[in-house]
Amino acid sequence: LQRGIERARAAGIKPGLAVSVLMVGRLDDYLRDVASDTSDIVRESDIICAGTAAIKRSYQIFQDRGYEAYLMPAGCRGAYHIADLAGARMIMSIAPKIAVLLAEMEGPFEERIDVPVDPEVIERLMTMPEFVKAYEPDGMKPEEFITFGSTNRTLDQFVNSGWNPLANHKF
Fold first, then answer.
1. What is the mean pLDDT of residues 35-53?
2. CA-to-CA distance for 94 and 83, rounded, in angstroms?
């Protein structure tokens, strides 16, 4: 995204809003299934931290590298996905169900974006190659992204539950 922003400016074009979406809850869902098949040490309490860990890591990288694009967590499964990102310069995609859960939370509230996910949780998650792919900056090559399990599932759901029924609908 940053290279595109810079190319636009070099061409005298004002760049538009740049947003990079990370489906935190969908990553958790995928890793939950992987863990149930392959891991004896990764717990459910670890799984629900995976998407948060990935976006916090991405956020730190964006900050360190001076990227102008915004991160947007999406597909949140609980208020914890949003609450753990409090204080971040992000665009939030908050479903109505999650908004209700956030409204029901009691303070005190504090910035949590710079609070790291428990290192022991990360250590257990790192035993899963699929988490490493999502978490590490060079965890997969760009051409591998399209076949990554979480990406594949999301695209399949969007096409088969969204676009295909629309394409066959008689207006």
1. 95
2. 11
